[in-house]
Amino acid sequence: MVKEPGDRFELTRAIGNTERVVYSMRELHDQDIICISSVDWEPLWTRKQQVMSRLPASNRILYVEPPVSWLSPFKDPACWEKWSRWREGIRRLNDNIFLLSPPVMPPFSNIYPWINRINQAILARSVRNAAHSLGMKRPILWTYLHSIAPLAGKLGEKLLVYDCVDEHSEYQGFNPRAVRAMERELLKKADLVFVTAQGLYRDKAPYCREIYLSPNAADVDHFMRADDPSTPPAPEMAEISRPILGFIGAIKEWVDLDLLQQVAERRPDWTLVMIGPIGAGVDVSSLSRLPNVFFLGRRDRQVLPSYLKGFDVCLNPFRLNRLTETVSPLKFYEYLASGKPIASVPMPEIQDFADVVEFGSGPDGFVDAIERALNDTPAKKAARLRRARENSWESRVAFMMDKIAAHLEG
Predict the structure, then answer these.
(1) What pTM was computed for the model?
(2) How many domains does the chain have?
(3) Are 227 and 335 members of one domain?
(4) How far from 273 is each of 17, 105, 245, 249, 288, CA to CA, in Å?
(5) Which residues contact residue 370 at a Cβ distance below 8 angstroms, ignoring those fewer than 6 apart?
(6) Partner of 353 at 20 to 30 A CA spacing, among 101, 132, 151, 192?
(7) Cα separation of 142 and 158, whole Å?
(8) Is 124 domain-assigned?
(9) Any bridge partners for residue 141, and if so which?
(10) Could you give the dihedral angle defined by the CA atoms of residues 340, 341, 345 and 350, in that order, rounded to the nearest 10 degrees?
(11) Domain residues for 190?
């Protein structure tokens, strides 16, 4: 039997060892969804792919990857590949998800609003043609980009959903005033807004009709493989001296490389392993010259549990600034699911996990946090795994589907 948006299912969450809370949730079925994403489908999976891949397969999804500008390849050579990808048109990922890379566009759209309006017109034409080819009618428009307000209403959408995951106005190279104006226009047009952090909620709520807090989460079953005795550690980890302090994720401007360098210099008996791509313009030369620091590059997400298995402590070393004050760190939830000890800077959005995570500010405090993490206990490990189960992508997607389905019913 085909389920309609108002049909319900039960989401059960374990509390401690005994209690259970049962949520009656609406599912989302048989919808056409256009997702305007801020990241390509591959290679790094973030909230966007985790959410879209967990929507019921009866929904058809057009996943629109972010466009590149004329100047992008000169800043990041990896962008050259995308210059020609848009000519491929619609790319079928599986039975219900289709990928689209838009045409190359003029630069500086996050600096000058008039350029953004031009780019949104180009994007509208590209997406509208793709949606027409797929036979999509009255889709749900689901965006992760703050800039698409001029696109609203041009795709025949019946609902506009904005899933806000960052304070975009704090990104390097953006015009903060222009970006805030773009986003506020979108917030006023959106039927439904989700945000990942309490700071984002406080900032966006005055401009929204309906807004909900929905933090990031983890692919719990996948990352719990790091705690499975049958999962072999990555072979290259066996050659690295312990204890190993590990980081997994994109190495961009928000990662505090200075803090990591001071840790590595103060404790030459510790080894720091960095796994993930290095962002354009990020200088890791000083850190990489240290003999106890290893940059292994990007690894496929399917093998990440085998690398986590080799860590003695997982590191969450964000720079503490306006951007990271409103970040729900995805890697943190993945670390939780691995069961490994975690040392983190004191980010506001994860302070509720102080019972299972070691926090420390500055070089002295962070070194102390790592030392406490190295003296972990079985009870703390069990608590981390329990907290991870409470923060799964399944629960997050169920919550979002429920709110969207309620709108469709209305």
Answers:
(1) 0.88
(2) 2
(3) yes
(4) 35, 37, 6, 11, 10
(5) 245, 263, 267, 270, 313, 315, 343, 358, 360
(6) 192
(7) 11
(8) yes
(9) 34, 160
(10) 70
(11) 8-217+392-409
Q: Residues 108, 248: one domain?
A: no
Cα(266)–Cα(209) distance, integer angstroms = 51
Distance in angstroms between the alpha carbons of the first and the last residue of the chain: 23
Q: Which amino acid is at 196?
A: T
The CATH number of the domain holding residue 162 is 3.40.50.2000
Angle between helices 362-374 and 257-266 (to 10 degrees): 60
User: Which tokens hold the place of 388?
Assistant: 């991870």
| Residue the block writes with tokens 């972010």 | 66
CA distance 297 to 309: 17
Query: Can you name the residues that pair with 194 across neighbouring β-strands?
Result: 163, 212
What is d(CA 99, CA 130) in angstroms, rounded to the nearest whole number?
10
Output the tens digit of pLDDT for each of the chain's 410 residues: 233 344 544 444 433 333 344 455 788 999 999 999 999 999 889 999 999 999 999 999 999 999 887 777 667 676 667 767 878 889 999 999 999 999 988 888 888 999 999 999 999 999 999 999 999 999 999 999 999 999 999 999 999 999 999 888 777 788 899 999 999 999 999 999 999 999 999 999 999 999 999 999 999 999 999 999 999 999 999 889 999 999 999 999 889 999 999 999 999 999 999 999 998 889 999 999 999 999 999 999 999 999 999 999 999 999 988 767 888 889 999 999 999 999 999 998 899 999 999 999 999 999 999 999 999 999 999 999 999 999 999 999 999 999 999 999 87
Do 249 and 292 share a domain, yes or no? Answer: yes
Same domain, 136 and 94: yes
**Residues 228, 361 share a domain:** yes
Instruction: Tally the C-alpha atoms within 13 A of residue 114's C-alpha that lie toward its C-beta.
Output: 0
* All residues at 6 or more sequence positions from 239 whose CB lies less than 8 Å from its CB, including other chains: none
Nearest to 48 by CA among 6, 1, 99: 99
Which residues, in sequence order, are bridge partners of residue 313?
Answer: 245
